[in-house]
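Q: Could you predict the 3D structure of NADPH-dependent F420 reductase?
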Amino acid sequence: MTTHDSGSAPKPPAKDPFDLPDVSGLTVGVIGGTGPQGRGLAYRLARAGQKVVIGSRAADRAEAAAAELGHGVEGAENAACARRSDIVIVAVPWEGHAKTLESLREELAGKIVVDCVNPLGFDKKGAYALTPEEGSAAEQAAALLPDSRVTAAFHHLSAVLLQDESIEEIDTDVLVLGEARADTDTVQALANRIPGMRGIFAGRLRNAHQVESLVANLISVNRRYKAHAGLRITDV
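A: Sure. Here are the predicted structure tokens for NADPH-dependent F420 reductase:
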């Protein structure tokens, strides 16, 4: 009996989507770390044992905020914060997003950049989503930082809950978007460092607009129900 070798090697087993890298040794920079969202993320990550550097346009302001946060958080001017960090979260106001990233292009080259900026407008009817020319804040970041590994995450978190020292766990999932699995896995693992949080892959950067826009809906939920709502993905 003659057998024929098809010449094709067996396929390797699929990677476990929850087999994530160890990120405990990474230094996390937070550009916009003196604002509510950035300050809250810095506090939660540092409280979980992550080394954190917060950035501001003024070094003395960043250092003062870091001293208030404690847990080993350090403060620096934005460029120094970016240089000293392995992974950098961008948590600046939408109005200053492009200008801030343009000024840090060299310092952010080669690094994972996590954009959590939500382009929103406000009027008497409440919050509403804006559509950047590039499609989303994350896609704008990718266009402005061609040498960086841009991802998007941490959009739907309440700054109030993040900064509340009496709260032990933040009950929410974190939607993570990006182009390279290694990068999104790293950001998911970073989200998992915060008790109660879980990082969930949610697509490529082209899908970031609806993730950023959903914050307008959450603001409406929070106002109606006097809450600090988050998101949970079921059946995962």
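Q: Anything worth pointing out?
A: The CA atoms of residues 156 and 215 lie 6 Å apart.
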